[in-house]
Amino acid sequence: MVVGENADKRGYLNEDFRLFHLKDSRAQRVDYHYHEFDKLILLLGGKVAYLVEGVTYFLQPWDILLVQHNLIHRPVIDPSEPYERVVVWLGRDWLAARSDPGEPMDACFDAARRRGFHLLRTGAERRLQYMGAIQRLEEALHSAEFGASRLADTLCQQLLIDVNRDILRDRTAQEETDSYRVDPKIEEILRYIGGNLGADLTVSALAGRFYLSRYYLMHRFKAVTGYTIHQYISQKRLLRAGELIREGTPVMKAAEQVGFSEYSTFLRAFRNTFHMNPREFR
């Protein structure tokens, strides 16, 4: 638990969770990336849009963005104002350990992914409550008093419980169409890819399935997601293979399930992405 963010994979989390309170006066370019942990982003000030899996979110102060592990995303920062935010990285083992039967602590991230909508925007009263919750969590993380670490753990759980309750009952931001921009056809294609990683996902196959020209599909997909179709599908297949391997699936079977027909191709791509072989990764 640390107060203190660095493409493909960006950042490593060795603790249960980490909190960053960051303020940048100069805009920096951040490339598309992903994490193996879940992440909450609370905007405090500045102008920033976040691109998450083909959807662009226009954040307002005290908006909360939920970015589940392995989702490809990046911020686009307007340099005209200082960009201030609180970012909370949440370890998946910690989330599982703090969950109760039927009430997983990462339910909010699953709900956001299923909806294809990752923005939580609350009213003024709830924003004040979040402000207080973040302040108390930061104070506990900085404290050297008795029980500070356990208190910080409890406060982080409380923050996450609030987010779960709000996102499961509140769709305010989704109803405010100026809060996000989405290309419906590309969103449909992304959902299909995510649910069919083992299928034929060549450009020709996708273009035929969605009644688009190959040229339009390739150029529109790159414009919306920042990735070529081949790059995106390869990345998603490798990330899913990594999850399967960590769950105990044999390496060759995991490669086959996500659509790699040749093991040597999978192994080379896996090493290039994770900088280790699959058995070390497990």
Account of the protein in words:
The protein is an alpha+beta fold and 282 residues long. It is 47% helix and 17% strand. It has 12 helices and 9 strands. It has helices at 92-97, 107-115, 124-142, 148-169, 172-175, 184-195, 203-209, 214-225, 229-246, 251-257, 263-274, 278-281, and strands at 17-24, 38-45, 47-52, 55-58, 64-67, 73-78, 83-90, 119-120, 180-182. The strands form 2 sheets. Strands 1-7-2-5-8 form a 5-stranded antiparallel beta sheet. A 4-stranded antiparallel beta sheet has the order 6-3-4-9. Strand 3 and strand 4 form a beta hairpin. Mean pLDDT is 88; it is low at 1-8.
Write the layout of secondary structure elements.
Layout: E1 17-24, E2 38-45, E3 47-52, E4 55-58, E5 64-67, E6 73-78, E7 83-90, H1 92-97, H2 107-115, E8 119-120, H3 124-142, H4 148-169, H5 172-175, E9 180-182, H6 184-195, H7 203-209, H8 214-225, H9 229-246, H10 251-257, H11 263-274, H12 278-281
Antiparallel strand pairs: 1-7, 2-5, 2-7, 3-4, 3-6, 4-9, 5-8
Q: Return the structural class.
A: alpha+beta
Unreliable stretches: 1-8
Q: Give the overall shape, derived from the CA principal axes.
A: globular
- Relative helix content: 40-55%
Q: Please write the string of helix (H) and strand (E) elements.
A: EEEEEEEHHEHHHEHHHHHHH
Q: Quick check: average pLDDT?
A: 88
Spatial strand sequence of the major β-sheet: 1-7-2-5-8
Strand content: 15-25%
Radius of gyration: 20 Å
Biggest β-sheet strands, sense, barrel: 5 strands, antiparallel
Please tally the helical runs, counting DSSP H or I stretches of 4 or more residues. 12
Task: Give the N-terminus to C-terminus distance in angstroms.
Answer: 24 Å
